[in-house]
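Chapter summary example.
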Amino acid sequence: MSGDGVAGAGASDRVLEARTIPAAVLRLRLATLLAAQLFDFATFVVMVGRHGIVAEMNPLVAHGFLAHGLWILALAKAAVIVLVGSIVVLLGRDDTPRRINRGIATSIALLAVLGGLVGGVSNVLVH
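The structure predicted for these 127 residues follows.
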């Protein structure tokens, strides 16, 4: 009987391990998304402090900053992080029935990270 208990425990450990690896990848995706978007926001704040809002090339961001200040951009950045992060979590779960959804979640996460990095690097390259 104890042999069955050990075999059963081993099988459940393997199932738990199989579910832990995607959860770790999901956490890594969310952390990378957060880091890239915060990099974009932090470099924006530094750029505007040094060069003024005229250095911002995105007219929506520039008009939002002029009309409402930095708090509206911080709120918008937080909303983007929560929205995209939620989509990545919902589509990337282990219990998602279709593998294509996990691929879409990966693509969305990559695009959000790329967007944050491009925005941050463009902010840094302003003369």
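To summarize the output: The mean pLDDT is 84.
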